Amino acid sequence: MATEAPESSPKSPRILVFGAGSVGCYVGGRLMSAGADVVMVGRARLRKVFDESPLVLTDYEGFHFETRLAPDTFTEDPAAAADADLVLITVKSAATAEAAEHLAKYLRPGTPVVSLQNGISNAETLRTRLPQTRVLAGMIPFNVLQKSPGNFHHGTEGHLVAEQHPGLEPFLPAFERCGLPFELREDMTAVMWSKLLLNLNNPINALSNVPLLEELSDRNYRLCLALAQQETLGLLKQAGIPTVQLTAIPTPLIPKVMSLPNWLFKRLAQKMLAIDPIARSSMWEDLEAGRPTEVDWINGEVVQLALSQNRKAPVNQRLTELVHDCEQSRRRWAGDELLAELRSASK
Ligand SMILES: NC(=O)C1=CN([C@@H]2O[C@H](COP(=O)(O)OP(=O)(O)OC[C@H]3O[C@@H](n4cnc5c(N)ncnc54)[C@H](OP(=O)(O)O)[C@@H]3O)[C@@H](O)[C@H]2O)C=CC1
Ligand SMILES: CC(C)(CO)C(=O)C(=O)O
Predict the structure, then answer these.
(1) In what residue span(s) does the Ketopantoate reductase C-terminal domain sit (predicted)?
(2) What's the rounded mean pLDDT across residues 190-204?
(3) Which atom of ligand 2 is nearest to the CA of 142?
(4) What is residue 3's predicted lDDT score, i.e. its pLDDT?
(5) How far is the CA of 15 from the centre of ligand 2 (A)?
(6) pLDDT digits over 276-316, tens only?
(7) Domains in the chain with CATH codes
(8) Is any atom of ligand 2 closer than 6 Å to the C-beta of 118?
(9) Residue nearest to atom 5 of ligand 2 (CA)
(10) Looking at ligand 1, which atom is closest to the CA of residue 144?
(11) Which residues line ligand 1 (CB under 6 A)?
(12) pLDDT tens-digit profile of 74-93?
């Protein structure tokens, strides 16, 4: 257990986290815990929290770290990007274009910018608006929940992945030291679609209004997820987009495993159920906070993929509509109701 960050050396590269919420504060704070020079750009409401209390990080394996964040370490001012050597983008997808517009004013040419966001298109949105920088797709597989203001909890396993690029290599030791090693890969399109197949659970978790563990222990919700994943896998196959294995289960088999009866699922998917009992999807957090969700960047991407092949994606289309309804109505769905709704949409 660490409670204060070691001093960063004067020559450490500066890592800027743009959009410090759950993922940004957690990854930025972990880097700080190992002495990295980190600046986070976030909102005034969190700045106020950090004026009164420390940033507190915990994880499912017992990690605990607390540190006070000075005004120059957590700031609302995007001008902090001017001396960044690496940028991590951790805003929600709807805020990506605006984040890029801020950063375009300050970043030095050639600065590596890694999108640690869900969805498929965020890196491209950044790339078109930051042509002088090196935008790389990244992927964060684990769950981070803000348990209380300024207290971020990492609830599931997995390691960070980013697009292979020599510009990232000088930063890898800092990630290694803080316990969040990066794997660099060349097949990021396959990685991002494979992560999206897992994120198809986000709307189901959000609509269920129960923690991930409770939701995935209910076969009706798992059958909803299997319908959305099966539809997506069919479209990916037709489009010639490969998948990669990100969990203990080969990706094409996930819908079959999701469909198993509870007793067999619990036996076979033990690793998948090794989820902190309080963990919930980031989409649930958005609904709870009354913010617009990322559903258009998750299920909406599947609908777009279908359109590009003159096909339809009725299950993902219906989930998108239900989450948009829920943004207004806050209606929550029982497993059997949601399954009946999606089955009728897919007819
Ligand atoms: N949370 C999780 O477990 C996981 C999340 N992800 C993905 O990571 C990304 C980030 O998610 P998450 O951390 O949960 O999101 P959060 O909403 O918790 O964090 C994003 C933060 O960025 C702030 N922000 C947006 N625009 C700006 C700006 N221009 N200047 C300063 N701050 C800004 C937001 O403020 P405001 O709300 O006021 O706009 C918010 O506080 C998403 O794509 C998500 O899907 C991936 C894996 C796991
Ligand atoms: C880690 C996971 C899959 C948890 O649902 C996620 O990506 C999210 O909440 O957005």
Answers:
(1) 187-325
(2) 98
(3) 1
(4) 53
(5) 24
(6) 888 899 999 999 999 999 999 999 999 999 999 999 999 99
(7) 14-185 (3.40.50.720), 191-346 (1.10.1040.10)
(8) yes
(9) 281
(10) 3
(11) 19, 21-24, 41-43, 90-93, 95, 98-99, 102, 116-118, 140, 143-144, 282, 291, 294
(12) 999 999 999 999 999 999 99
Say what the pLDDT of residue 7 is.
58
- Helix axes 335-346 and 314-329, enclosed angle (nearest 10): 140
CA of 268 to the centre of ligand 1 (A): 33
**What does the alpha-carbon distance between residue 121 and residue 304 come to, in Å, rounded to a whole number?**
11
User: In angstroms, what is the span from residue 285 Cα to ligand 2's centroid?
Assistant: 11
Distance of CA 79 to the CA centre of its chain: 25
Q: How many Å apart are CA 167 and CA 178, to the nearest integer?
A: 20
Residue 1's pLDDT is 46
Closest by Cα among 297, 278, 319 to 148: 278
Q: Is the dihedral of CA 276, 282, 287, 290 positive or negative?
A: positive
Q: Which ligand is nearest to the CA of 140?
A: 1
- For residue 156, what pLDDT is reported? 87
Does the model's ipTM exceed the 0.95 cut?
Answer: yes
Q: How far apart are CA 132 and CA 210, in angstroms?
A: 43
Q: Which of 199, 246, 293, 323 to mutate to test ligand 2, by most ligand atoms within 8 A of the CB atom? A: 199
- Ligand 2 atom with the shortest distance to the CA of 198: 3
CB of 93 shorter than 6 A to ligand 2? no
- For 92-102, what is the mean pLDDT? 98
Neighbours of 249 (CB within 10 A): 16
Phi, psi of 281 (to 5 degrees): -75, 155
d(CA 148, CA 56): 10
For the CA of 199, the closest atom of ligand 2 is 3
Question: Bridge-partner residues for 86, per DSSP?
Answer: 15
Q: Which are the contacts of 15, defined by CB distance < 8 A and separation ≥ 6?
A: 28, 31, 36, 37, 38, 39, 84, 85, 86, 87, 88, 171, 174
Sign of the dihedral defined by the CA atoms of residues 80, 86, 89, 95, in that order: positive
